Structures are given as structure tokens and as C-alpha cells.
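Chain A, query sequence.
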Amino acid sequence: DTRQVDKSSAGNRQTKVQDQNLQEITDQGVCLSMHQPWASLLVMGIKLHEGRTWYSSHRGRLWIHAASKVPTQPEVDQLQRFYELHSGIKTTQFPPHYPTSCLVGCVDVTEVLSQEEY
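Chain A, predicted structure.
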């Protein structure tokens, strides 16, 4: 828990946030649905970028939802080999399973580039 109760002020209970960065986080509830295994790999920081054909002005927390399509084992194996080869990530750092039809986590959107810039 990141909250601490200050009881020093004569019975007044004031909540103090221990993590100052937490006060700066805003959550607008924006969510992006993605197929697995890409959804989990993005949340884990293995996949670093995600492309779309449209522009978004959103910055900050973006929730990632795993769509209902279950990935095949060959899809998972191929993608894990790709990231091992191109990023040096070891197999043990990949998720043991890829859940579907659920929120898998969130990322922090800091920049959005057009397709031409990327």
C-alpha cells in the first residue's frame, strides 16, 4: 500500500502518498486491444513499439487488453525466437503463458510518431 495515515494532527486523519510520482499519474481509462503474444510482450517491455495507421494524441497510461484469439504454439515460438535473436532476451524471461480476453497490464505512452517518421 502506498498510503500512510498521519495521526499527529489532533484526531485529524490525513492521507499522505509516499510515492510522489503516483500523484502525477493520471488514468483516463484508455485501453488498446491487441492479440497475444504481442499484448503481453508489450506490457513486459520486450516489445518496445506498437504501430497503428491512425494518430493518437494520448500520452500517459495506456491499458493493454489481450483479445480473445488464442495464439498458436508455433506463433509464440516464432515470436520468442525473433526477440531472442534481435534483443538478446533469454527464453526464461518470456511469460509462461499468454492469457486472453483480459487486461494484461499497462504501458506509458511517451511519444507517438507518424508512419513516415517511424
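The beta strands are 3-9, 12-17, 31-34, 60-66, 102-109. DSSP finds three helices and five strands in the chain.
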